[in-house]
Amino acid sequence: MEAGEIGGALLFFLAAAAAVAAAVSVGAVDFSRPLAAGAPLGFRQAVSWLIGVLDGTSSAAADVYGAWVAVRAGVIAPVLQVTVWACMVMSVMLVVEAVYNSVVSLGVKAIGWRPEWRFKWEPLDGADEEKGRTHYPLVLVQIPMYNELEVYKLSIAAACELQWPKDRIVVQVLDDSTDPFIKNLVELECENWANKGVNIKYATRTNRKGFKAGALKKGMECDYARQSEYIAIFDADFQPEPDFLLRTVPFLVHNPEVALVQARWSFVNDTASLLTRVQKMFFDYHFKVEQEAGSATFAFFSFNGTAGVWRSVAIKEAGGWKDRTTVEDMDLAVRATLKGWKFVYVGDVRVKSELPSTYKAYCRQQFRWSSGGAHLFRKMAKDVLVAKDVSLLKKSYMLYSFFLVRRVIAPTAACILYNIILPVSVTIPELYLPVWGVAYIPTVLTIVTAIRHPKNLHIMPFWILFESVMTVRRMRAALTGLLELEGFNQWFVTKKVGNDLEDSEVPLLQKTRKRLRDRVNFPEIGFSVFLFLCASYNLAFHGTTSYYIYLYLQGLAFLLLGLNFTGTCSCCQ
User: Fold this and answer.
1) Which of 175, 284, 323, 329 is catalytic?
2) pTM of the full predicted structure?
3) Is 323 among the catalytic positions?
4) Is 176 designated active site?
5) Residues 553-567 pLDDT 10s
6) How far apart, in whole angstroms, are the C-alpha atoms of residue 446 and residue 540?
7) Among 176, 235, 284, 331, which one carries the catalytic annotation?
């Protein structure tokens, strides 16, 4: 038996015991009515005793129960009702935002709109890069990495094979690795490509101050970096196609007002498990809907931190890389926009990357993004309001849609309404939940999410349950960043698996035995117990509401992810 299963069972029994103790304390269960001493314990007597315990027929239990009903109706229900209507307002804001983005995205697809309609794009002079060498600008390709044993060869090789005149491109590997063995391997790989004639530079730092932002900032201080007109950035697990620069840089060359060209991510492991399939749906919506809508309307969206090309002048004008948040990419994008720069999203250009393969790694990634985005909202709201180079309409879009709705309201409303109020409502009949808020709005959100990738309709039920679990993590992260609570500025590097592990020159690290708390996610298991208890109560005393089927499924999702189930069995693929 797995340690996770043992931990889950123990926690379940502890929670059940706590629930029984709480029921006794409020008089909902009355054990003060014992069986007659010395009487034989027959079946009918046992049943009669149990019924008396559950309905609290003793006068003391009746008094306590009456007090509980009075408090429930007079205090708890009104407070929760206010919260319900606040969630309804936020849900309407969320659905309006989602429908707007989906309509724009569908319109773009229907008319066949392309970035070339708005921004000029022509191949650089000279079809032959050797003949047209003087027309090619100097490009710096930066690859920040940190102990990337599994993928360092992939990203370095892809960057070194980009089609561009050899004397007009510099590949810069920014290695912050703390493991001397991995550091040596990365340096040797750079030397191997340098021996092949590639202009590649290996750069390290004495400390990791500023994490990724600090590494990129340090890399920009080199003389060859200052001379570069454009900066392409790829994380350690990203593998651009050889023609990446040929398809993206012309947007920057022919449009002096453009600061950033962002490509779309594709994934090498999106079918590896149910977890990665669900993640792909999340990123498909982000790129196909949010990024595309922002690019087509306001020429503004968040830089994804990788698979993009920046104009170096725009980076300098915006103030360079800053490490004040864990979303240095979004920070730079917002500051550049406030200086009047525009962005281009090119969905046809895709760069291969890797999705987190474990639930814990995905949670850490989402915590960093959610916390950083909310924290940046706190930092930048005033700057957006007073910016002079941005129109009032664009300011409204940035503050309301980009920051408030997506970074704060989306995780908060979903978590509070569906993971807290809905389960609790089964025990509080005085609480009113409008059907349009708990049924129609989620249906609309599901439709607008699925409409751009109908091939994944069979995954939608799993996506809904998975996102329900993730809203708890994202809300905690958003509040942590917004209020600058403990841990708001923590940086976790997403663990990679890679697809080159068979290489005998790269020995695998020895597996270590994990402790129970590292193998089990206790918050998720605790939430699953809470949902199971609420579902069981609703099933036994359903009254006018019947949410128990959804609550049981939701509790099961929390339990499975609490035990780190990722759906790697064949039936889930």
Assistant:
1) 329
2) 0.83
3) no
4) yes
5) 999 999 999 998 887
6) 30
7) 176
